């Protein structure tokens, strides 16, 4: 059983529904909760689980004001995702025409990894390195 996430990176998007589709359909996250926002196509809160453990939270830039997340700008986040399926994810991103910013390579610290930007510019790195 995959453990429940205890750390949640949080991101904001101008077009959160499109971001959810990219993260689910291309990167491979699983959509677990999407709470609509007040405006058309707005998402107040969404939770996406990573099948190998962990997850991210996201919402629309015009989401509920809380003086923390409503001040976040799209395209300023960076998330590292551990996976044993880096080559499969890389192929999906390439097939989808994703913006690969650092091509697939092996690092001197033992990771098989690549980086990309999502449709609104947030940086994602997918790699096998699980930390020290």
UniProtKB/TrEMBL annotation:
The UniProt entry, under SUPFAM superfamilies, shows: Glyoxalase/Bleomycin resistance protein/Dihydroxybiphenyl dioxygenase (SSF54593)
| InterPro entries in alphabetical order | Glyas_Bleomycin-R_OHBP_Dase, Glyas_Fos-R_dOase_dom, VOC_core
Per the database record, which ranges form the VOC domain?
5-129
**Pfam family for this entry, one:** Glyoxalase
Quote the protein name from its UniProt record: VOC family protein
Q: Which organism is it from?
A: Amycolatopsis carbonis
């Amino acid at each position: 059983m995959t453990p429940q996430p205890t750390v949640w990176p949080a991101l904001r998007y101008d077009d959160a529904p499109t971001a959810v589709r990219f993260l689910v359909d291309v990167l491979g996250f699983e959509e677990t909760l999407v709470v609509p926002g007040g405006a058309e196509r707005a998402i107040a809160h969404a939770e996406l689980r990573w099948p190998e453990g962990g997850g991210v939270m996201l919402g629309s830039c015009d989401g509920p004001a809380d003086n923390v997340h409503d001040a976040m700008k799209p395209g300023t986040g960076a998330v590292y995702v551990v996976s044993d399926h880096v080559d499969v994810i890389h192929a999906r991103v390439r097939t989808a025409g994703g913006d690969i910013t650092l091509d697939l390579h092996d690092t001197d610290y033992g990771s098989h990894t690549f980086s990309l930007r999502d449709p609104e510019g947030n940086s994602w790195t997918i790699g096998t390195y699980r930390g020290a």
